[in-house]
Amino acid sequence: MRPFRYFVSCGLLCVLLASTVSLSLASADSPLPVMASAVEENLHAKSAVLIDMGTKQVLLSKNPDERLPIASVTKLMTMLLALEAIEAGRISLDEMVIASPHACSYGGSQIYLEPGEQFTVKEMLMAISIKSANDAAVALAEHVAGSESAFVAAMNQRAQELNMQNTHFINSCGLDSVGVTGKPNDQGYSTARDVALMSVAVLKYQEMLKPWLTTRITYLQRAKGPVELFNTNHRFLRGYSGADGLKTGLTDAARYCLSATAERNGFRLIAVVLGVASDELRYQDITQMLNYGFANYIGKVMVEAGEEITAVRVNRGREQNVALAAQEQLAVLLKKGQSLDDVEQQVELPSKIFAPVQAGDQLGILKLVRGNEVLAQVDLVATVDIPKLGLFGTFVRLLQEWLG
Asked: Can you tell me whether residue 302 is helix, strand or coil?
């Protein structure tokens, strides 16, 4: 007869095998409901955060405000400023960027630009977003702002505007200790929470970026032969359902970093990990976090950006009313199975509005409310200009009102 210890050992082995299978399933495409605390405790990253894109609500986190180097994830801000410059008409996708000796001097991941070599803004953005090319990032920064140091100043200013309270950039590419701020021994840093906010801003340009962010491999044409652009984020893109971005990072100081985003059924999540020991563990962390989000939550867009909500009277204006529209998309985050039946829309307006009014002026607030809890809110802005009436116009208006 076998000793009791034999059966206990076999039982423990079965439990361990079952646990291994369960962990494998938890990281597969079909997410299983788990507790946030269980995911957080199992993360390998020094710092991590998972947010809903629509509401920016944090779904789980680990040391989200710890200041750490973020390596090439820095390039998200470089891309953002370039994309905003394109949107503002200051530069165009087709204009040429000339590589300077300074841009060509950076090491690390690069396309080996030579001084005087030219690529379009679009091609430089491709090199940055796909291959994470440092030389392309610096060349584009110089093109946008005149110098990399001026561009870095703009990066830090934009970070403040995005409420990235624990971020400091020292260059446009993310290399360790290669600063252009003029401060000796200056160090760059950010946090998982700040990177998530930066990622939200970049994803405003998702339609423009998607062909590049989701490309596994492509080529840039140059006189001495094509340049291969192999996507540094290829593992996440090919391995996770709904994955379509965003930016990897790796240096000796930062270790493995990633801002990842995935969308399923119109619900987009952003997961950020910093300071992971290996690419394998980086991917495991991101997969666990996104699986948790998709298993437990659903996002619902209630109002689209620019959607007209109401109209208000404008005193002493050439037009008596102005339409108000949502300044940005308004979404609500729900736990799976939760109903929207008890969610109400409330519009708050000032008692009186006087001309002149300019398009874009914030004149009200739209809130989504459940009971006494405000779930989300968005500013309501004027859709058109309303000039102020002159003296004669005011007299005519008063006369019309008096005559009924």
From this structure: strand
Structure tokens at 153: 């100043």
Task: Give the integer Cα–Cα distance in Å for 144 and 56.
Answer: 29
Type of residue at 284: Q
Residues in the chain, total: 404
Q: Determine contact, residues 359/365, Cβ cutoff 8 Å.
A: no
| Chain centre distance of CA 343 | 27
Active site residue 75: yes
Helix (H) or strand (E) holding 396: helix 391-403
What sign does the CA torsion over 205, 207, 211, 214 have?
positive
State the burial class of residue 320 (Cβ atoms within 10 Å of its Cβ: 0-12, 13-18, 19+).
middle
Minimum mean pLDDT range among 229-238, 338-347, 393-402: 393-402
Q: Is 149 noted as a catalytic residue in this protein?
A: no
Indicate which residue of 62, 75, 131, 247 is catalytic. Answer: 75
Catalytic residue (one of 132, 172, 199, 259)? 132
Q: Which amino acid is at 360?
A: G
Q: Which class is domain 304-403?
A: mainly beta
- 357 SS3 class: strand
Q: How far apart are CA 56 and CA 65, in angstroms?
A: 15
Let me know if 259 is a catalytic residue: no
Contact 248, 32 (CB under 8 A): no
List, for residues 157-215, the tens digit of each pLDDT value: 999 999 999 999 999 999 987 767 767 677 899 999 999 999 999 999 999 998 988 98
- The rounded distance, in Å, linking the Cα atoms of 201 and 87 is 13
Residue ranges per structural domain of the chain: 26-296, 304-403
* Catalytic residue (one of 27, 47, 61, 72): 72
Q: What CATH topology corresponds to 26-296?
A: Beta-lactamase (3.40.710)
Instruction: Please give the model's pTM, rounded to 2 decimal places.
Output: 0.82
C-alpha angle with apex 53: 74 to 33, nearest 5 degrees? 110
pLDDT at 389: 81
Please name which of 3, 6, 47, 18 lies closest in space to residue 289, comparing C-alpha atoms: 47
Work out the pLDDT band at 393, boundaries 50, 70, 90: low
